[in-house]
């Protein structure tokens, strides 16, 4: 009995010491600032923050969990928009609101976590450093915590900073793909031969061999495009602005062959383990290309390919694979919209 009394007294003394230290030495709430820069214009960056459907695609807090369920409420962007979320696996839930918006300059978020009646307040400022660079400043104020929970303030800032670092890496990839697509669409000049340098790419896709009779090749391309697209978007959970345009790589002059072999893949930002053996990664080295944009029937692309090959021969350039980048989704019985790129070298 005496032993239990001693244990109780020690527990009370330790509890009192803990409470006193938390009360006198740890703030009941935490305020801190984090600054980052990203190499994209402020209007493109801001749209990823004020549209909560965009926001949850790259923000690590939401993106890192496979079990989180998010509901979006109108308006879907700007002041007054909101979401609620439940993550049963991690035993957490909450609500997030945009309370104030000054377009391309300021946003104010309120985040209520785990039935806490006091919100975390986050003011985000956007400053255009240059035409293509934006500074993002987070001013964070955490809710007041009781003495017993106040120890959490020791690592709140570190946890928030880590989340921002991971989020910014994903945001850079999202904006990179989005800007690349916008730039490609803006630069299209159909049936004009151009010279371009293409950077290296990492593609996730499928290797295929199929017949080249009549429209069999195009039907096969449509089928395998759907396989790859569905795998990337449904199985891997990627959104359209997280990857680039699908690319088909094949021999430049195989349009004359009875059977065609090709690789059809979607550009991704990094390599990871793939559980489905039908799919594999392929690294594409930087190249110099002769390029033509083409819109029409898939069979009609042959004329454009021949022009690229003739140009290479005229310039006494050797050539390798041809890449067919599908700017619009290939569909049966419809015209294609694509970029044809013939890699050339001395």
Question: Would you write up a description of this structure?
Answer:
With 346 residues, this protein is of the alpha+beta class. The chain folds into two domains: 159 residues, START domain (Alpha-D-Glucose-1,6-Bisphosphate, Chain A, domain 4, 2-Layer Sandwich), CATH 3.30.530.20; 152 residues, Regulatory factor, effector binding domain (Multidrug-efflux Transporter 1 Regulator Bmrr, Chain A), CATH 3.20.80.10. 32% of the residues lie in helices and 35% in strands. The chain is built from seven helices and 15 strands. Strands 8-13-15-14-10-11-9-12 form an eight-stranded antiparallel β-sheet, with helices on one face. A seven-stranded antiparallel β-sheet has the order 1-7-6-5-4-3-2, covered by helices on one side. A hairpin with a 3-residue loop joins strand 4 and strand 5. The radius of gyration is 27 Å and the shape is elongated. About 6% of the residues have low confidence.
């Amino acid at each position: 009995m005496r032993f239990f009394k001693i244990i109780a007294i020690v527990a009370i003394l330790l509890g009192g010491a803990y409470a006193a230290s938390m009360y006198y030495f740890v703030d009941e709430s935490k305020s801190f600032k984090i600054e980052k820069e990203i190499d994209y214009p402020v209007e493109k960056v801001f749209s990823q923050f004020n549209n909560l459907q965009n926001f949850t695609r790259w923000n690590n807090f939401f993106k890192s969990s496979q079990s989180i369920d998010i509901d979006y409420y109108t308006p879907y962007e700007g002041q007054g928009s909101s979401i609620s979320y439940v993550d049963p696996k991690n035993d957490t839930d909450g609500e997030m609101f945009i309370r104030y918006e000054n377009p391309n300059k300021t946003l104010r978020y309120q985040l209520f976590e785990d039935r806490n009646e006091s919100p975390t307040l986050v003011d985000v400022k956007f400053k255009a450093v240059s035409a293509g660079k934006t500074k993002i400043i987070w001013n964070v104020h955490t809710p007041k915590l009781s003495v017993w929970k106040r120890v959490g303030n020791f690592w709140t800032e570190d946890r928030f900073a880590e989340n921002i670092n991971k989020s910014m890496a994903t945001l850079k990839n999202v904006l990179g793909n989005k800007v690349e697509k916008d730039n490609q669409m803006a630069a299209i000049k159909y049936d004009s031969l151009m010279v371009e340098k293409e950077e290296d790419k990492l593609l996730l896709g499928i290797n295929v061999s199929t017949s080249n009779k009549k429209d069999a090749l195009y039907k096969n391309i449509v089928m395998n495009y759907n396989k790859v697209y569905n795998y990337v978007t449904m199985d891997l959970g990627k959104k359209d602005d997280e990857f680039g345009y699908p690319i088909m790589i094949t021999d430049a002059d195989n349009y004359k062959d009875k059977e065609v072999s090709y690789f059809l893949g979607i550009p991704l930002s990094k390599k990871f383990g793939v559980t489905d053996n039908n799919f594999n990664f392929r690294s594409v080295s930087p190249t110099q290309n002769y390029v033509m944009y083409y819109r029409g029937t898939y069979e009609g692309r042959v004329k454009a390919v021949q022009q690229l090959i003739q140009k290479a021969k005229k310039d006494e350039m050797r050539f390798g694979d041809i890449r067919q980048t599908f700017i619009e989704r290939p569909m049966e019985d419809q015209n294609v919209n694509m970029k044809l790129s013939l890699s050339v070298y001395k």
